[in-house]
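REVIEWER CHECKLIST
Item 1: Sequence provided? yes
Item 2: Single chain? yes
Item 3: Sequence as submitted:
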Amino acid sequence: MSLLRLPFVLPIVFLLSACAAASAASRDYALDYRARFLPDEGVAAATVRVRQRRPGLTLLDFNAPEARYRDFAGDGGIERDGDRLIWTVPAAGGELRYRVTVDHKRGGAYDSRLTEAWAITRLDELFPPVRSRSWVGAEATTTLHLEGPPGWSFETAYGPVHEGGVRVDTDGRRFDRPLGWLAAGQLGIRRTQIGERRIAIAGPRDQQFRRLDALTFLRWTLPELARVAPTLPARLLVVSGSRDMWRGALSGPASLYIHPDRPLVSGNATSTMVHELMHVATEEPPAAGDDWIVEGLAEYYSLVILLRTDGISGDRFERSMAFLRNWVKDDDGHLADPSSGANTAFAALMFRDLDLELAAAGSGLDSVTAALLAGRVDRERLASLAAERLGRPSRVLAAALAEAPRR
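Item 4: Structure as written out by the authors:
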């Protein structure tokens, strides 16, 4: 009996599966992000455009504070609820238009800047964080378009943006939003390929950022850094701005910002560039209370990478360790969240001790770091990865974590 039914059952199952797949595919949609810089007004005119034959994407809920994002208009339902802007997407698609103030300050200095000749900002500020609602199985094809005054160029972590736009694709996400640093305007740009990674260094022409110095530094250090942190992206963008911008460095997805006066190697032999690249390689933010992990690893490896690539001598490395110990002693450093200054120095020294403990057992911190950066970053996972390699719990971590508060 079952043998007689089998030929009839299978086509029905296959037909239903095919119909379900076809139904999901028919709800796929195209998502276009557009921004046009208007230096005379100090804003970027932004548009989010959805094209779909059937309802696929139904709602976008933006975190868009009124102080920076304004003049929302477009198709479908648009509702502001405090800092949130909720857009009900029409069944046939449509567009949402708004303006965003580009200039923004961090501690009295710009971390986002628009001038008559250029702009340095983050794409995730032009297109703010958003929660989406869509049909199950609906997939987006996402494109970024950028415009500005005549003669402007646009450099992103996705590559240069020309007239046809550039594809935005984030692994593992059905809904993509442009992320990372952006350099726009009259730019000086240097490019190279290091191994399989494509590198661009960009900044305003008139700000004397030593782009070739930075590129040379990366050619020298990046291969070793990529061995320690294989999660470094296939494309990397480094941008710099003007001297009235924030005098440090800030990482972003597949990109980082560094002030033009910031040395590639500091007086204590640590490297801001290597430090921030370690953050770029970290795929997930640290768990609450565990910021010291990413900061301590970044600071420790900013020295280790220079040591391994002969940028600094063994004696210089040990003097840097002594400098960190004195800093911890003078300023009462400890494991902290958020971590900075003497607290980060304390975490870096702890990772040096852990590295030595692992080396004595025939392993090393590199394999722990590579595994940790590729997943959730928290103290439990760090301890577990170390214990796997030691064959027992780490004594260094046990002593340090006993004094590390949870936030």
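Item 5: Key structural point noted by reviewer: Confidence is low (pLDDT under 50) at residues 1-22.
Item 6: Recommendation: ____
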